[in-house]
Amino acid sequence: MKKYNFILTILAATALISSCGNQGNNNSTGALASSAAEKAYVAPGEHDEFYAFMSGGYSGNITVYGLPSGRLFKEIPVFSQFPTSGYGYSEETKPMLNTSFGFVPWDDAHHPDISQTNGELDGRWIFINGNNTPRIARVSLSTFETEEIIELPNSAGNHSSSFITENTEYVVAGTRFSVPIPQRDMPINEYKGNFKGSLSFISIAPETGRLNLDFQMIMPGFNYDLSHPGRGKSHGWFFFTTYNTEEANTLQEVNASQNDKDFIAAVNWKMVADYVKNGGGTKMATEYAHNVYDEHTHTATSTMKKEVITVDPTEVPGAVFFLPTPKSPHGCDVDPSGQYIIGNGKLSADLTIHSFDKMIAAIEGEKFDGEAYGIPILRFEDVLAGTVKSGGLGPLHTEFDDKGNAYTTFFISSEVVKWKLGTWEVLDRQPTFYSVGHLMIPGGNSRKPFGKYVVAMNKITKDRYLPTGPEMEHSAQIYDISGDKMELIYDFPTHGEPHYAAGCPADLLAPKSKKIYRLDDNKHPYAVTSPDQAKVVREGNEVHVYMSTIRSHFTPDNIEGIKVGDKVYFHITNHEQDFDVPHGFAMIGQNTSELLIMPGQTKTSVWEPKKVGVWPFYCTDFCSALHQEMQGYVRVSPADSNVPLTYSLGE
Amino acid sequence: MNTKTFSIGLVFSLLLFACGGKEEKKEGFSVDRKKTTEKTVESTEPASEVPASQRITLDNKGVGPIKDLPLDPNIDQAMVDRGAALFKTNCNACHKVDKRFIGPSPKGIMERRSPEWIMNMILDPQLMVEEDRCAKDLLVEFNGAAMANQNMTEDQARDILEFFRTLN
């Protein structure tokens, strides 16, 4: 009886607490009242509302997460070899990582950007830059595979990249390091006046997405840090933050921070593109790789290009202007209307907002404040729209919602600050954990943001999770921004070092996500489309194994007549035509990775047997109840043996 | 008794290993293991005594999209040709016309299974294995090698069926 009463009391108390909680929701203050867990919770079997594509930084790849759950769906290999799938190891994908420096199996991936139509995300492709050995990659958002990588000559530290103009006319890439152009042997301390910075405009074919390095602008030797396209009224312009306008070549930490103001370079790319189209620019001999993956042959080819068109900005009057911007600006962001260009001086407490209209008026009035290497400098006061006095320290990057608000990260004071466009009033601030770099709102750098969540990507993790030794994954926080105040709802680790990220509504991509490769579309030259075509062919000391797989056997699974010193190519076609039934292939002692072959796909792995014996291979992906039976043997005989070449299955 | 047999076997295996270094051809060991047909407790159907591959289940239409499929008495050769080509690309890895392989041979299948059952098995093998008794027993008889869904359209499955009609 006593116990019964006790339970009743508890029940009543709970009911009271619950009802109070509901009322409290309106203010959305405090995690208890608003149930942060419920907002981030996506029930088992349910799908997330948004995709988030995070750059992997030094992993060289892109990771795909769901929002609001923070669940990791996939890592897409882009610039780095990836043994999980065999990317960069298989014969078909090795050409993707070819450069003018030879095979470069890694890069530092920074800023993904999704293709746009009329300034809105269209979900066809995502682009990302390789920072170290300058490259731009295009990834298909139906296969989630890297389809193209183009190297950039005359660039070094490809950082102010890869940003998309509002109809995906160009993917734009600026150099962080200025270098001698063309490269030559010269003293480092003769940097000033001699080194140059290149801004690359890579056109995108509307149907195929095929990339072409249309032209490079050869700019003064500053560091071009970040960039964003104009949109709406400012479509046709591109804006780049610069630092090291001092043109220092050593102890940059001090020497590149001397000037009170650096510049935002405003480039009228439409004017320059027309100039080039009409025969302007200078052809320069150079060398860069262009690598293209064909979805139908499942094979990449690498072509070495020998020439690029360079444009001297002083030859195109009216195309380039410098907007003075305080304190070594880092982030360069344009609001959804295209009116405001935000430059965040990373050594400042304030944000500087330039007005596109005022910039045009100043240009038309020819109100210049001198020039730098022949490029007109506009007067700061003439282009300034306003300043956000936030009280934070170290502003880096800004994204936008669909209600006229902007959200800026502050690295030094570890916070996200929400402010109002036009009034420059600070509306809210929330701490991040810790030292936030970029932030991302799905569509937050387009004309149509989806202002429901913002993800803050932090540089320092420290105590956020269980410790895993000195090396930890970086932390990210997700905030609900649908109300007046931002609300921290979840915190999750991210792989590599995400710099920027891009997000979009799930329904933009999910319905067109490819499930299988159709076997009857397979144009791979070594594919076998029916198991009776499986064969083993010797051409000198090269042996080509045309092999097929289906649950759960390889055809053939016994091969004899291979000799030490042979180069054996296993061309494996997965004959499954069902969603999510890949097969793997691994050969003992192989000096490369396994392969993971999707349904209907063909991949090739090379094996150079070094030892006499009978050596097994097997399927690495648990494919069926009989997966452990999915194996085979290769008999390797001495180099001078006469064992005939034979192959079989079930004999 | 069992323990004793096992011990003898073990000694025999050890002997085999000891001989491994020599050149002479080994026949390996063999154990007389007759395959037992699964007898599930709840089963009362006498049909389960006959291996599923030999059972005649012409009245069973199976489970899946095909409910009723009357066949024209004349065989359509164009369909047969298309079906044979599809069979070669999509089925041949596991089904051989002339022998039992990973799965059963399609030879004579029209005398054992209804057209609807065959079509359903091609179109949704997973559902069939879950809900159709015969399909379930076949999976067990064929060592748990589950039939792959090859994403055939109904027309493609129908062509394959027409090809099966020529295999008697």
Automatic annotation (TrEMBL), chain A:
One of its GO terms (cellular component) is cell envelope. PROSITE patterns: COX2, PROKAR_LIPOPROTEIN. The keyword Repressor does not apply. InterPro entries: Copper_CuA (IPR001505), Cupredoxin (IPR008972), N2O_reductase_N (IPR011045), Nitrous_oxide_Rdtase_Sec-dep (IPR026468), Nos_propeller (IPR041114), NosZ/Cyto_c_oxidase_sub2 (IPR051403), WD40/YVTN_repeat-like_dom_sf (IPR015943). Its EC number is 1.7.2.4. It is found in: Cell envelope. Pfam families: nos_propeller. One of its GO terms (molecular function) is nitrous-oxide reductase activity. Residues 1-24 form the signal peptide. Keywords: Copper, Metal-binding, Oxidoreductase, Signal. This is Sec-dependent nitrous-oxide reductase.
Automatic annotation (TrEMBL), chain B:
This is Cytochrome c. It comes from Maribacter aurantiacus. Residues 78-168 form the Cytochrome c domain. One of its GO terms (molecular function) is heme binding. It comes from the Bacteria. The keyword Cell cycle does not apply. Residues 28-42 have a biased composition (Basic and acidic residues). Residues 28-56 are annotated as: Disordered. Keywords: Heme, Iron, Metal-binding.
